[in-house]
Every structure is written in structure tokens, then in C-alpha cells.
Amino acid sequence: MNKQILGIAAFLLAVFVLVPVLIGASGRWDLYYTLTSVALLAIGSAGVWLTFYIGRINIGQGAYALMGGYVSAVLMTQAGFSFWATLPIAGIVCAMISVLIGLPILRLRGVYFAMITLVLTEVTRLTALALPFTNGAKGITSIPLPGALSIFGITIIPDFATMQNPKLAFYLLAASLMVLTYVALWRIVNSRLGHLCRSLQQNEELAASIGVNTAYLRVLAYAISSFFGGLAGAVFVAISQSIYPSSFAVADSVNFMLYCFVGGLGFVSGPMLGTFLLYFGWDLLSVAKQYQLLIYSSAMIALMLVLPNGILSLFDRKGGRK
Fold first, then answer.
1. Is there a contact between 40 and 231 (Cβ–Cβ < 8 Å)?
2. Residues 12 and 183 sit within 8 Å (Cβ to Cβ)
3. Smaller CB count within 10 Å for the chain: N or C?
4. Contact status, residue 114 vs residue 52, Cβ threshold 8 Å
């Protein structure tokens, strides 16, 4: 336990202190955007990991990230909402939509559920192209930066537009949301709800036979997963100040799944590690030019063969979920 606490403290110190200090010293301000993207992708991947936890292969998280982005963008540009108000709304709307979608499709398993969720991302993109308030292929642009956040007249977060370095502010926002997401995910996994969800993964029929409401658990886990996706999409919109139907595609949904596999499906922090490694790994392989995709794909196949339980399985001696 002491080692775990020290590890968490070291991680938080590195994320919130060491990274800003090193970037400030090097002058590589562009790294803030890169690391912010990694943090937000890790949030979306956390949701995909949760659906794996109930025994479902989710390849549709890009759809909810796109939905969340559009909800936030429409509310800010057309309804005058504050960015901070749109954050929870985007997540809740995605969760509600996922309940409607999940009720019929969560009865499916294996490749059948995966195929439906894969199609979901493309359906969402086409819907965004057709709806009038999403502005079609032109997308929504000129989205304002997050304004000040005040509680009881006290400014907690200043207006991003007045900041000298809003990139740092976005990084700290994304990193904070990532930490809160994984704390929530860890709490779910180690609660009674998490134990019940694990029973679905191991033997759904047996769980149902002893009185577990499997349908309710499936929908609840899928709703929480979609909430994380919508949250990440809303912050992505604030950073880019624009959103288009192609902002999140099928390839993004596949990547969300790969991040979970690479990090380790048996570990709560697996999606976070997988996102970091694959995101930077792809960039590092850019020196290979036309062979970039070939090397990347070969490395992925080799990794799955050698470490089918993810990279974190190298450090797991007890076989438990962490």
C-alpha cells in the first residue's frame, strides 16, 4: 500500500509540477497541446475499458466524443451557455443517448456488439452532416475560449482569453479531469457495483441465475462509459475552438480500444499508459515515413502475441486488478 501511495504521489507530482517546469525551461510550448490530447484520449479510453469490464468490445467511443463535442459547441455558440456548464451537460446527454442505444444492443455479445458500435461512429458522423444546427460539413467554428468560473462571487478559474498562456491552463484542466476520471473508475471497480460488473464478464448466465440484474448493470456501465467520451469531446472542442463531422472518425474509435489493449485490460490505469505509449510511439515512428504504418502495425501484433494482457502485466505478480 505504501508503494502504491508513493507511486500515485510521484505521478501527480510529475503531471502537475515536473511537466510544466520542464516545458517552461525548454520553451517547447507545443508539447502542452500534445500532452493535453493524451490526457483527453485517456479519459475516452477509460470509458471503453469499463465496457470491456462487463465483457463487451466497444469500438464506438468516437461517436460519443463527437456527440459531446457538438453538444458543448451548440450550447456555447447558439444558446450562450458557459463552457463550464456544458461540460457536465455534454456528458449527461451522451449518457442518456447511450441508454437508448444500449437497451437493445447490449444484449449482443462478442463480435456482434463490436460491429454495431463500430457502425455507430459513422452513423453519428452522417447525422452531424444532416442536422441543421450542426451546420453540416462546415462545422461550428469561432467557439469562444472557456470564460471565468466563479463560485459565490469568488473566481476559481480565470477567463482563458485573458491568460498569457492558455495552453498551460488547458493542460492543467485536461490533466485534472483525467485524474478525477481514473479515481472514479478505480472507485467503481473496487465497489460492489464493480464486483457485480466483473461477474458479467466471467459468466453472465450464472450472475443472472443468482439474482443479479444484468440488463441494468450493462446499461449503467455503458452510460458511464459514454459520459467519459462526451466529457473528453467537449474539452477537445474548447481547445480547437471548432468541430466538424470528421473530428472523430472510426479510426479514433479503434484507437480508443487499442489503448486499452496495450496498457492492459486487467488494470484500471491500463488505458492511460496505453494512450501515452501509442500516441507518442506513432509520432516517433514518423521518421520511418512510408514504413510508419507497417512498423506500427507489426509492433502491435508482436505486442499482442508476447503480452496479451498488456504491458502492465509485466509488473503484476498477484494477477489482481489495480
1. no
2. no
3. N
4. no
Distance between CA atoms of 141 and 307, rounded to whole angstroms?
A: 43
SS (H, E, C) 217-286: HHHHHHHHHHHHHHHHHHHHHHHHCCECCCCCCHHHHHHHHHHHHHHCCCCCCHHHHHHHHHHHHHHHHH
Helix, strand or coil, per DSSP, at residue 132: helix
Strands (E) in 81-203, as ranges, are 149-151, 154-157
Spacing of C-alpha 319 from chain mean position: 25
Taking Cα atoms as reference points, which of 277, 251, 252 lies closest to residue 263?
A: 277
pTM exceeding 0.70:
yes
Phi-psi category of 175—alpha, beta or left, where left has phi over 0 and alpha has psi -120 to 50?
Answer: alpha
Beta strands in the chain (DSSP E): 149-151, 154-157
Contact 266, 309 (CB under 8 A): yes
First to last CA, the chain: 11
Cα–Cα–Cα angle for 276, 71, 50, rounded to 5 degrees: 40
Q: How would you write the pLDDT of the chain (322 residues) with one tens digit per residue? A: 677 888 889 999 999 999 999 998 988 888 999 999 999 999 999 999 999 999 898 999 999 999 999 999 999 999 989 999 999 999 999 999 999 999 999 988 888 899 999 999 999 999 999 999 999 999 999 999 999 888 887 888 888 988 888 999 999 999 999 999 999 999 999 998 888 888 888 888 888 888 888 889 999 999 999 999 999 999 999 999 999 999 998 999 999 999 999 999 989 999 999 999 999 988 888 888 888 889 988 988 898 889 888 999 888 755 445 5
